[in-house]
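sorry to bug you again but im stuck and you know this stuff better than me. below you get a single protein, a line of residues and a line of whole numbers that encode the local backbone shape. mainly i need to know what kind of three dimensional shape the backbone takes. anything you notice is useful, everything is just below:

***
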Amino acid sequence: MKFFQTIETTGAVSLMLEKAHDKDHPTENIALEESLHRTIAKDIAIPEDIPNFRRSTVDGYAVKSADVQGATESIPAMLKILGEVHMGETAQIPLEKGTAIYVPTGGMIPEGADTMVMIEYTKVMGKMVLVYKTQAPSMHMVFPGDDAKKGEVLIKKSTKITPGVLGVLAASGIYEVPVYQRPTALILSTGDEIVGPGEEFTLGKIRDINSYTIRGIWKDWQGEVISAKRVKDDRALLEQEVEKAIGYVDFVLLSGGSSVGVRDFTKDVIEKYAGKLLFHGLNLKPGKPTLAGYTKGTWLIGLPGHPVSAMHVLHEVIRPYLEAVYGNSLVQKIRAKLVENIASSPGKRTIQPVNVWREEGEWRAIPHYSASSLITQFVRADGVITIPREVEGLYEGDWVEVEVRQ
């Protein structure tokens, strides 16, 4: 029997990234309100200063600092109130010597004023205001461009759009943003034993899991699933589905049929269209029987049939590729201290599910043991840690990085 030779997951990612240069990733302009979690496709320079006028950071009075020098609680400065500035309006009245104008937080500071006095240090007496505190110039004020200067590249290419980024774009008056189009995928679950909704489920059959888990993770990564189908062990049918997708989607994700067996057509089909395999076999536990080819801008990825293995391969290979190409971090990571030793498989990169909790202000982690093929670990465990191939195990008290994979 001919066995495939494995490569490191990092090597697989590197090989894929070399091919990434062969394709320009399509972009589109979308409305700001629709852009959350999408990826910026080019640097964005802001069109105006933020803020674009002098603003007060307090409720109080705009004054000339020279008029309140030496003011104390016992000897206040007395200034004439000229009026007030309303939010959203231009300050119309220029400040004169010996006068004050009321300005709310965020309001425009009138010409002639060079400082703000907090309302707590004032007292109104008719048309006059008493100021009980000396103020230095520029106190409680922000100036045009203090937050960002016109022309500054504030949002860089490959930035993931978060609620905070939405706020900055809105503050800049940018309501349409250039983003990468979502990476598209066709999901194919192969095997005569796979059954779906409405199909007879008899002893020896396996319910289709991968169509749902892979679709879920792809959408969670802000990708677009064009279709998810089940394909019997029929090479002609598999070729038909793959051929239609080439050049149309970014990824064809085939689960099952990637190991060595007389009825495993995935390898032959990928080789037919890609010419040759980019890799076949990962030094990963679980996830060894994985293969990939590339043609006409479409990745043909043969994933293991076991749902758990398929999910780990997506995280270990496809996710780093997407992160490198699109610039996003697609998973939550926490640093935790192990409370128990963990053995591994020397010579293989090992994925170990764990449970985590907070204790004494720190995250703690304990291994969750189950067979790699058991799907319930995705709800019984909180996440996973990765043990490098050259490490024989981890010890109680070691700090580890936990990837939250749900």
User: Anything to note?
Assistant: The domain at 29-50+146-180 is CATH 3.90.105.10 (Molybdopterin biosynthesis moea protein, domain 2). The first strand starts at residue 27 and ends at 31.
